[in-house]
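My main concern about presentation is that the manuscript never shows what a single data entry looks like. Each protein is reduced to its one-letter sequence and a matching series of backbone shape codes. For the editor and my fellow referees, an illustration may be useful. For illustration, here is how one protein appears when written out as sequence plus structure tokens:
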Amino acid sequence: IIKLYTIFSVGQSLIVFVVSESVICNREICAPTSVWKDVFMPALKTTITAREIGKAIAKAIHEHKVLPGTKLGEDELSEIYGVSRTLVRSALQGLSHEQLVDIQPNRGAFVSKPSLREAREIFEARALLEPRTARSAALRMTKESARRLQTHIDDEHEALAQNDIGKALWLSGVFHIEISKLAEQAKIGPFIEILL
């Protein structure tokens, strides 16, 4: 028997429920369990890496499924992913380096909650980096890359039309990362990823 878990962000805590029904609700949104697993967990396979766990958590953060300030318990996450706390701790450390998670001694890991000043600094840094990156990307644009970017924009618009703001925000961030990859700026690209 495979246990299916769901995560709810309530206030400052992460609450984990074992789900035995065929429909799972996250806040006001309900979805079949198969959809829910795809959102919070990478495809089930025999082994999962810290990087894959980190990517799944990062996506949930970017889609605002896990809110700023939410505690990310190692025990709960290790049970959700069926891995050791060591692997979860490694994933959280990686997210800390990306500044998505704040690790506080003797308290645990929390989804980062940037201050107004930090948010302003992020937008100022993006305003400095992104115009040059967009220019470089435009110079390297091919028909295939233009098609890929258009598909991405269409997906983002579809998410907005379905009122899936979290997904639209995540897709917007991925779009900016795709632009930086297209620009082939090996040093600037990682900075843009961190700023998103």
